[in-house]
Amino acid sequence: MRLSQLFGKTLRQDPAEAETASHRLMLRAGLIHPIAAGVYSMLPLGLRSYRKIERVIREEMDAAGGQELSMPALQPIELWQQTGRHGAFGQTLFTFQDRKERLLCLAPTHEEVVTTLVSLNVQSYRDLPQLLYQIQTKFRDEQRPRAGLIRVREFAMKDAYSFDVDADALDATYRRVFQAYKNIFARCGLPAVPVEADSGAIGGKDSQEFMLLAESGEDEILRCSGCGYAANVERAAFVKPPAPNDAERPLEKVATPGKKTIEEVAAFLGVKPEQTLKAVFHAADGKVVFVVIRGDLEVNEVKLRNALKCADLRLATDEEVRGAGLVAGYASPIGVKGVRVVGDDSIALGANFVAGANLDGHHYKNANYPRDFTVALLTDIAKARAGDTCARCGKGAFESMRGIEVGHVFKLGTIFSEKLGASFLDKDGQKKPIIMGCYGIGVGRLLAAAVEQNHDEKGIMWPAPIAPYHVHMVGLQLDNPQVGPAAEKLYVDLQATGLDVLFDDRAESPGVKFNDADLLGMPLRVTVSPRTLKTQSVELKRRSEAQARNVPLAEAVAAVRQAVDEASRAATGRPAA
Amino acid sequence: MRLSQLFGKTLRQDPAEAETASHRLMLRAGLIHPIAAGVYSMLPLGLRSYRKIERVIREEMDAAGGQELSMPALQPIELWQQTGRHGAFGQTLFTFQDRKERLLCLAPTHEEVVTTLVSLNVQSYRDLPQLLYQIQTKFRDEQRPRAGLIRVREFAMKDAYSFDVDADALDATYRRVFQAYKNIFARCGLPAVPVEADSGAIGGKDSQEFMLLAESGEDEILRCSGCGYAANVERAAFVKPPAPNDAERPLEKVATPGKKTIEEVAAFLGVKPEQTLKAVFHAADGKVVFVVIRGDLEVNEVKLRNALKCADLRLATDEEVRGAGLVAGYASPIGVKGVRVVGDDSIALGANFVAGANLDGHHYKNANYPRDFTVALLTDIAKARAGDTCARCGKGAFESMRGIEVGHVFKLGTIFSEKLGASFLDKDGQKKPIIMGCYGIGVGRLLAAAVEQNHDEKGIMWPAPIAPYHVHMVGLQLDNPQVGPAAEKLYVDLQATGLDVLFDDRAESPGVKFNDADLLGMPLRVTVSPRTLKTQSVELKRRSEAQARNVPLAEAVAAVRQAVDEASRAATGRPAA
Fold first, then answer.
1. What is the mean pLDDT of each successive set of 10 residues along chain A, which is 577 residues long?
2. Scanning every residue of chain A, which has its alpha carbon at the shortest distance from the alpha carbon of B105?
3. End-to-end CA distance of chain B
4. Which of A504, B31, B91, B340 would be a feasible disulfide site paired with B26, CB 3.0-4.6 Å?
5. Contact criterion met (CB < 8 Å) for B91 and A99
6. Do the chains contact at B69 and A113, CB–CB below 8 Å?
7. Which residue intervals of A29-84 are DSSP H helices?
8. What is the set of domains in chain B, with CATH numbers?
9. What ipTM describes this predicted complex?
């Protein structure tokens, strides 16, 4: 492709709205263009990378035994009411009436439709297993679209769904898709890290996310420095630190005027935060829940939501707290009535806690569970943090990293097959619900994450396998009678070897051209100019290296091919396709 | 692919809802599945054909100089208000509010977005021409979705848009895309016929549709038996037959009690239909329009809409007709007041017409235009019919055929570029609007039209280039110790030559297997059975031929390859890819 003809101009200036490196660089390089909040066009250069990723995904999903199909975005709302997810998705689900006043939605995911299809096409264990996938457009009315293609309202996703006869068969399928995902990321030159993830209120037992590490990542990952266990912060299992566990002393009410926070009260009473109980108020599906957790720990909302099995969870408002008869800053689990109390199991690790007295300016000393108060539910709802001890090995400490979730594999179990009647007759003629798994890769997000992970201050540094073009050829002074023909010949010869070549044939200055080459970020830059031709050579420069080198014109094609293969091997361990 | 594992079951019975052959066969063969009116999933077998078409389209559009991009479906309504098409699409446009109460729509086509993109990325004549295309999902809330994938509410379309400096440059681009379309249909084995089409109220001068001839087609095409000129019935230019053109006689009111239709009045007064004037009432954007046309002709609503430049056109209701002071059955252009009168130019071809007297039970004789009445607009608004004389050659007669529109090429001119500010500076530094063209192929519709055109009573007969698989291999008695290994070996060997093979390895009867092979319609059936192996042979049968033949097992792979190439050559003139 000649750069003079390529649709999509590079921008000299950083766009004001860009929040992250990938957002900024993808706009500046002319890969994407927004038309509304979280809604983008993919321009030709961006689409080339996108298609390369798509091809890798298809090949690996096919190799894993997947069959591609394509399900629609428009869906009748009744299907979503049947699984109850109409409510669970809430405002994220775009809904509207058609001209006949039937309520439709735009699908944010396809469990409902694929399970319905399977219920109609699978009768016997002989029809299983099935692994179905599509690369299709999803719609989600996100509250806060952000960071370019990282969080958008319309996006392409590879979603796959598996259907098996039992848990062992699902295990095998899950492992197969997991391996396919590892292959996909490796072949794209993107070292994604699998981490344990929350499997949600509806979840089966296994759920893993693939993360590309990047400072701008939305997700916090905790990794054990000892055993290497890695998990999403929402999921990470940790050992709660001990707290003094003396014999229980009598409950005692003390004045703590104006001391409301854990820090203030602990300092005032001369105790440590782990010797206090913190009260946190949430509204779960609109009802106030009183959460008690040890003062040194924080509530993990995902664990809490799963424990409560609620669809909507948020912090309660002051008004809701007062309405429940509680005194903010001094609220107490002792003697509380008419409010559901949930305790983190840390409240049983330790004794003689300081707790609120539900009386302005007063706390209790020596509050003990379950002597002084009870809870409706006692479970782990605390959030792991960097420095906490890994529960897997019991020794190592967590370190914190940020990442972008680019893939998710998930054991669904029978939630959907039971609700939508997807069953099969087993070998004994018994009717059983099909066991499902689901597997997703956000294709556009993967593209953005690739840029997020691979750039410098000058621009993008594409991993070779997903670069829009392998080679960025710069011609300088193309109206020079030597340069023009030499550059044109090289352009043709390089393409003839199967390389994708972008040829900057514009009438621009060397500075503009080199800056654009750095911004667009192809793995190899090849320059043909009066200066290089004076020594019958061309200049080669890897995007990832500062130094350029000259190679004889006669060997240019072979040298370029070799350099591209090296770049590809550096990214994936194998030469360019 | 083993048929035992293929997702998507064949149906023994015709589905009740199927209206046309392609609808019926695509459901029965498990290619598609509906989830709402006009909304389908594409199952694996259907998607394979779809992807083959898609690949051909991409290759030809790239070869024509197209650059692929991908524009979103979600669009802000403001963009559509800017071009006025919010109103023109009316209820066909799905619209809804997002969570922030901004009005969005789902794009039925992409002129608005692509023109906006071009306005931002094109400044100079040096940035032109541009030919941009995408294969993307469109949404249209059709009043009457029908016939499976022929008319749906969500569908994949290859839409392309061209941008040129002037009319000559557009001509060149248009011809290039026209040739690409011819190549696409030819390579798919689908002989699409280009016909002249209506270019609409907004149109430029050229517009052509590509039609696949099929009895169930929605569109009527007229083709001149003389010169070969072909046009959509809405567009076809014809020579209006003469009518007696005597000297004008005095206007005379006559009683025609109970005679309302042209036939009744003509018979009663002893004249021919072409000696009468017909009054037809339309509502154009809600206002009654009185249309006068010679009694032997019919109004062409498309020509009328273009002449009136209105968005909405329909027949007026009786109430609207009475409300305009007109007497239905006896309405007259003579003396009519307060209503816009539009005349077909046939009213000037002939004299002394019978016309209504706007008085119950009465007509005029010897009504003459313009002596007795005037019209606000006199133009061609008559519909051509089979048997009419072709206006192109002036000699041949039209024959009527039915077809399915599978492609459309269209010169848009500057309508969109002017409204959306897409301009460029020409060589002299003058700012000018960019000249546009647009070009569409409905990919799913093309698939359905292919089935509509290629089937018999037993099932589909795929043109080889777009068949989901080249070969349908039937194994009979696969548990037989000779058959099983021979079939497995052939399955592997055929695939190794690059052929797509569907292997019916199910434990079904020969009858079920052969019926499914006919239903699924791959170009070549290969049978391995105890009977064929007795003579060390396999049986080959072309789907398009009744007779099978046996070939030696040792030559089977070469014979199959040759037969597939022959089938491909029969469809496209070249061997299978």
1. 95 86 95 96 97 97 98 97 88 95 96 96 95 97 91 96 96 96 95 85 73 90 92 90 91 91 92 93 91 94 88 86 83 88 93 92 93 93 93 93 94 92 96 96 96 95 96 96 96 96 96 97 97 96 95 96 92 73
2. A96
3. 19
4. B31
5. yes
6. no
7. 44-63, 77-83
8. 21-219+401-452 (3.30.930.10), 252-379 (3.90.960.10), 461-572 (3.40.50.800)
9. 0.90
